[in-house]
Amino acid sequence: MKKSIIALATALTVIFGANTIQAKNNNSELTIFETADSQLQSVYDAYFSVKDALIKSDSKLTSAKAAALLTAITAVKMDKLKSNEHTAWMKVVKKLTADAKSISTTTDLKKQRETFKSLSKNTYDLIKVANPDQPVYKQYCPMADADWLSKEKAVKNPYYGSSMLTCGNVVETIK
Q1: Residue with the larger pLDDT of the pair 36 and 155
Q2: Residue 49 to residues 10, 74, 88, 141: CA-CA distances in angstroms?
Q3: What is the pLDDT of residues 21-41, one digit of tens each?
Q4: Global pTM?
Q5: For the chain, how many structural domains are there in total?
Q6: Distance in Å from the first CA to the final CA of the chain
Q7: What range does the domain containing 37 cover?
């Protein structure tokens, strides 16, 4: 009887031990996917901060937000990206870096807005493959002949700020 109880206890230990290992493996897989999503999410969030600073026509704030974007870009661990995101990232990372650096090193609002056109195009190319949780709106201003991305459907133009705040329209919804 004593040997049976020991055998049963040993069997239960092995079974529960295997389940614990499997649970740990499943959690690490979740962490990998969460990490992949958050890798680019910080870049998107920083992009939206730059856009919001341009809407306010605040060149110093725009410069600071672009520096934060640059930090987010350099923090991305490419090996944690999904295959399609990695491919898109490799196509745009140099341009994103150059644009963020250019915006961060000037307080000339006109230059910042001009560079933001390229930054928006490359961010769009990246977010298209990411399947964001929330809809992202691609908006277009005919006066600036330029697009930008927004989390809100309401148009707030980063190219003209308060002088033409609502100039533009939604041209695409990315889901």
Answers
A1: 155
A2: 57, 17, 22, 19
A3: 444 444 433 333 344 456 899
A4: 0.78
A5: 1
A6: 63
A7: 2-174
Q: What is the pLDDT of residues 112-129, one digit of tens each?
A: 999 999 999 999 999 999
For residue 73 the two structure tokens come to: 């870009």
Determine the Cα–Cα distance for residues 34 and 50; give it in Å rounded to an integer. Answer: 24
Instruction: Check: CB of residue 65 under 8 Å from CB of residue 50.
Output: yes
* 89, two tokens: 């990232």
> In this predicted model, which residue has the larger pLDDT, 33 or 57?
57
Structure tokens that stand for 167 in this block = 């100039």
| Cβ within 8 Å of residue 104, ≥6 positions away | 63, 64, 66, 67, 69, 70
d(C-alpha 30, C-alpha 46), whole Å: 24
Q: Return the H-helix or E-strand segment holding 127.
A: helix 109-128
